[in-house]
Amino acid sequence: MANSFDRVTVTAHDSVAVLAFHQPEVMNALSARMIAGAMAALDHIQADGFRALVLTGTGKAFCAGANLAEVEPGLSAGDMLERVYHPFLYRLRDYPLPVITAVNGAAVGIGMSFALSGDLCIADRLAFFQQGFGKLGLVPDGGSTWLLPRLIGLARARELALLNEKLAAETALDWGLINQVAEDGRLIQTAIHWAKQLAAGPSSIALTRKLFRDSPGNSYEQQLAAEQQAQQQAAGSQDFQEGLAAFQAKRPPNFTGK
Question: How many CB atoms within 10 Å of residue 158?
């Protein structure tokens, strides 16, 4: 059963929620309305007790970037980033559930940034990634000048941004930009399978996600200290006690996320 929000849908698959951008007639190009719908959907998912999130798009595209036909009156490009797109990116970064992005087609401009904002990224074989900003006389945004050098190195990041060429899913996998290319017709099933694995995992997954998220800004010493603090917290959880008991009894653990 699907729950509809403004230009967004949410479907439940046991403990996994699938949030889909839903304006296929414009290839799910982002507008303030769609972002508001997505924010409301994230609130619903968090409140309903789901334990993992899959982010995707309906139709033939994940997200074709910003919807330039629906620019908010009186808002500059910089205003739109600050007031509309950045809050959603921060929300994804800080979301309490593990996030898997399932890229089902074009991921262009800031849509590419959204596609790379999950913990794991799976793409359809026909999907592609493209910066595209230069074709409009704009600069990369959505955090792409921060994300791309860390994911694929500075040389390839510059190549994508300056040449604005499409990057096929298979090449994105070879470059280390994404985690997997799904078999034909199995993108959502694969993403949900991974999400269910994460949903069944321990509460320490949230701590692990934060450690990796914060690591680029930390020195080696700071990261060791962060790991120590997180490990102390994980060792005090019910899930650690369950994991230890299951290990000693040679049985699968039954984590509750607590």
Answer: 13
